Amino acid sequence: MFAWAKSHVHPGWPATLGPLRCAGGLVTVRPVKLRDAAMWSELRLRNQNALLPWEPTAPGSWVQRHQRSNWGPLFSVLRSEAKRGTLLPFVIEVDGEYVGQLTIGNIQRGAVRNAWIGYWIDSNHYGNGIATAAVALGVDHAFGPVGLHRLEATVQPTNDASQAVLTKVGFRREGLLERYMDVNSRWRDHILFGLTVEEVVGSATESLVRLGRASYA
């Protein structure tokens, strides 16, 4: 049995990742907090058109689901899953401002040591390397303190921006998952991307720095 299982302390949680500087500013990734309600609601509502095409179908309208009052129950679930060691829910900050979220989910231990990674950021910050920096920080954390061996990500074939983020961090395309997920009330194909710890030379953040896509603060 893993030592963390005996102590009921999940490895790598809670933790603050970074900072890492990119064109968009100083990127930090930190655990979600109960006081994030107002910014979470504001960003999700304002970015409906940017996010709705890529996110799983859920009950109720987008506006109903993202009212400020919904954050408390959602936060409780996220915190519970984090304490159980199955999920790492983070906020992406740029220069101290909440601009999105990064999540490492479905964490599996034993002989697999696998998880998926997902992310979103405010459309006002697109194209500045913020998502790439945040994902690189998440990868290093997952392969370091969390002790995982493999990360996966799924992206719709038409989501070029998200595919570019994953490719810059080192993920490889592994195949097409046909009718994989119910998104915006239709079953959508997704491309499966994968990355294992052996494929990371040094660290994901070091690779970005070497390529001139980021720098250390």
UniProtKB/TrEMBL annotation:
Superkingdom of the source species: Bacteria
Stored Pfam families: Acetyltransf_3
Keywords: Acyltransferase, Transferase
The UniProt record lists the keyword Repressor: no
GO molecular function: protein-N-terminal-alanine acetyltransferase activity
InterPro entries in the record: Acyl_CoA_acyltransferase, GNAT_dom, N-acetyltransferase
Family membership: Belongs to the acetyltransferase family. RimJ subfamily.
Protein name per UniProt: GNAT family N-acetyltransferase
